[in-house]
Amino acid sequence: MSELALHPVAQDLLFREARTANTFTDEPVTDEQLRAVYDLVKYAPTAYNQAPLRIVLVRSDEARERLLPHMAEGNRPKTASAPLVAILAADNEFHEELPALLPHFPQAKDLLFADRPVREESALLNATLQAAYFILGVRAAGLAAGPMTGFDFPGVRKEFLDDDHTPLMIVNIGRPGDNAWYPRSPRLAYDEVTTTI
Q: 70, 152, 154, 183: which sits with the fewest CB atoms below 10 Å from its CB?
């Protein structure tokens, strides 16, 4: 009997057989698919329910042409071929939403997050956690996610965001194409990463 409640097929889909795709088919990724992904990943845990992740979906040819020069050279073909590209960013002004997201403690906005450096640190950590859930959500939709940090962060921020948003990663999304996978790299074993005290 498995120690996991999740069905083995779902375990494979989300974890064991999930890979970072490097090529994609031209099958479109629909708005409905992305809404379904978000409806799952919005439940990711964040401190004070701050939910600072913001997502810019790059769908048009014009927007993609603006993005490609900011990608590391080796990542450009992947981003050029993906039917949808998501820029994941942390909203450093997330505290403005706290009265609605944390109705039992609306004063958290001013008591805990009045200072910009505190917000930036918290937004970075919590939006990164949400980004990990986003990748799992894409996989749950039967799509491949290609998360990348090989890009010009200041350039992407200037081109697509503003000073209140910090880019975290860019995720190519779609159905895997021909020769989509690099060989699987090794992973550390349980006993190599855990310490019991």
A: 183
